[in-house]
Amino acid sequence: MTLEPFLLEILVCPQCRAALTESGSAEQPELSCTGESCGLVYPIRDGIPVLLVDEARRPA
Question: How many Å apart are CA 27 and CA 29, to the nearest integer?
Answer without folding.
Answer: 6
